């Protein structure tokens, strides 16, 4: 029956012929044209070789494919520019009447810029945006409640309490600024739709820093199709680069299984670097990042967050960036940076051979020498658990323990990990995380850490000790008292005087 039924095309042709809107010659001409195009393209396909530059449009001219060498660039900003934009983003019009709590926040921010000390997470982010705007780049941020920030930390749009008028400080960074240069908008409750839109936007213009923020990292699973089908594999499948930044608030604060985990392990599992092959690690090149599908970071300082955002634009290729963004670090008394860590002045903190830039690994805060034989344990960690470990180390007076922060999880910083392994030749090696063993970074880190150890003759896989929560179906407990107990136990275990048993 189906075989004998006229096709939609045939029925439509007949209808148009009956009404006299087309002639038989018109129909035949269209048939001939389509068949000619299909036959020509089929013939070309037999000897077609994909061109790595096929994805380039006018905006993308000059950007490099993974086969072309790209060098590390400085992401520091001149001190006078930092001061100028810092004043702009912390100043409200005299006639503007903000909420008294917001007014106090802006006064505190102005004091940070003036003193150059105690820069917090929100100010670091605003400085990164402002510095990019000054350089002529478009910055675009969307997501649920991003104008204020889910945790009332951002305040990129403030409201006059008498008139209801809105004011966006980042619209006033330079004189006569085009208000479209900075765009921030609260989105609807559809992670799938909004992330998909921003992904498309980022592909259109590489000179835009495009960011999507989940209200909590847990909610990103509503956009899982976008991560699986497009963001993680788009360049491999279609030769299309994107520099989209995804901010996923993550951290174990006792808020329960729906507000603790961005499912970091999923993003790491989709990373395409080989855990058993250490790539070329030239400190002046970015070949490792160019050849991977995306970057996953868990940053612990405002300055490092500033630099990782600027790094997205200050390079001649584009890669997606997954940021497991903090929650309690937004106001943590120890999570501060000095303005000198943001600038490009030689001799200031953060300045090295390539200038001031993002640190893929932050070494122990104590001023350890190139080789420290007296250190008995090296604890590697990532994210906000570092501050709890450091606090416990002070309390227990464990001067024989070093704690290093792996800020960039993927691609894995083999060169810097090996530098620390050489620094502490007698140290027991520990990976510490807040997440359950079957989640977080452990499954990703362990084979790569072993590869780094193996080339240095530093033991077997069983010499990597695990400290964290036990395997679990749920990401976190729903009971605050249980959370506190678990967190306390894992922090204490990482600093215990006895050797830690495998795993």
UniProtKB/TrEMBL annotation:
Record-level GO BP terms: tricarboxylic acid cycle
One cellular component (GO) term of this entry: mitochondrion
Statement: the UniProt record of this protein carries the keyword Oxidoreductase: yes
Signal peptide stretch: none
One Pfam family here: OxoGdeHyase_C
Protein name from the UniProt record: Transketolase-like pyrimidine-binding domain-containing protein
Keyword terms: Oxidoreductase, Thiamine pyrophosphate
């Amino acid at each position: 029956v189906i075989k004998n039924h006229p096709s939609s095309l045939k029925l439509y042709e007949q209808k148009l012929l009956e009404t006299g809107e087309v002639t038989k010659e018109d129909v035949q001409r269209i048939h001939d044209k389509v068949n000619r195009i299909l036959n020509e393209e089929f013939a070309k396909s037999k000897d077609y070789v994909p061109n790595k530059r096929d994805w380039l449009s006018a905006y993308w001219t000059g950007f490099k494919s993974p086969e072309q060498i790209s060098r590390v660039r400085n992401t520091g900003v001149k001190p006078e520019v930092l001061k100028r934009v810092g004043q702009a983003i912390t100043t409200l019009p005299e006639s503007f009447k903000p909420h008294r709590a917001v007014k106090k926040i802006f006064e505190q921010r102005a004091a940070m810029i003036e003193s150059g000390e105690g820069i917090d997470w929100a100010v670091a982010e605003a400085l990164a945006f402002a510095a990019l705007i000054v350089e002529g780049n478009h910055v675009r941020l969307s997501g649920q409640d991003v104008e204020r920030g889910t945790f009332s930390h951002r305040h990129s749009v403030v409201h006059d309490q008498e008139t209801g008028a809105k004011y966006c400080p980042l619209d006033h960074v330079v004189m006569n600024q085009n208000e479209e240069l900075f765009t921030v908008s609260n989105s609807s409750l559809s992670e799938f739709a909004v992330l998909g839109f921003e992904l498309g936007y980022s592909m259109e213009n590489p000179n835009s820093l495009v960011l999507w923020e989940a209200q909590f990292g847990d909610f990103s699973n509503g956009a899982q199709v976008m991560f699986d089908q497009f963001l993680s594999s788009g360049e491999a499948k279609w030769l299309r680069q994107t520099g989209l930044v995804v901010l996923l608030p993550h951290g174990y604060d006792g808020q329960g299984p729906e507000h603790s985990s961005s499912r970091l392990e999923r993003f790491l599992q989709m990373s395409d670097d080989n855990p058993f092959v250490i790539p070329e690690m030239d400190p002046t090149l970015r070949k490792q990042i160019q050849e991977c599908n995306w970057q996953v970071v868990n940053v612990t300082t405002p300055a490092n967050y500033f630099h990782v955002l600027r790094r997205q634009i200050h390079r001649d290729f584009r890669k997606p960036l997954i940021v497991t963004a903090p929650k309690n670090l937004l106001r943590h008394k120890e999570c501060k940076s000095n303005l000198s860590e943001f600038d490009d002045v030689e001799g200031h903190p953060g300045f090295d051979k390539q200038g001031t830039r993002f640190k893929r690994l932050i070494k122990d805060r104590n001023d350890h020498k190139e080789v420290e034989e007296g250190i008995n344990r090296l604890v590697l960690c990532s994210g906000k658990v570092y501050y709890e470990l450091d606090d416990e180390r002070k309390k227990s007076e464990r001067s024989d323990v070093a704690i290093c922060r792996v800020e960039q999880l993927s691609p894995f910083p083999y060169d810097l990990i090996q530098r620390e392994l050489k620094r502490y030749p007698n140290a027991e090696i520990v990976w510490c995380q807040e997440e359950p063993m079957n989640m977080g970074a452990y499954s990703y880190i362990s084979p790569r850490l072993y590869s780094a150890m193996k080339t240095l003759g530093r033991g077997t896989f069983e010499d990597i000790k695990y400290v964290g929560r036990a395997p679990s179906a749920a990401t976190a407990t729903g009971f605050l008292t249980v959370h506190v107990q678990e967190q306390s136990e894992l922090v204490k275990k990482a600093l215990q005087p006895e050797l830690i048993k495998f795993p």
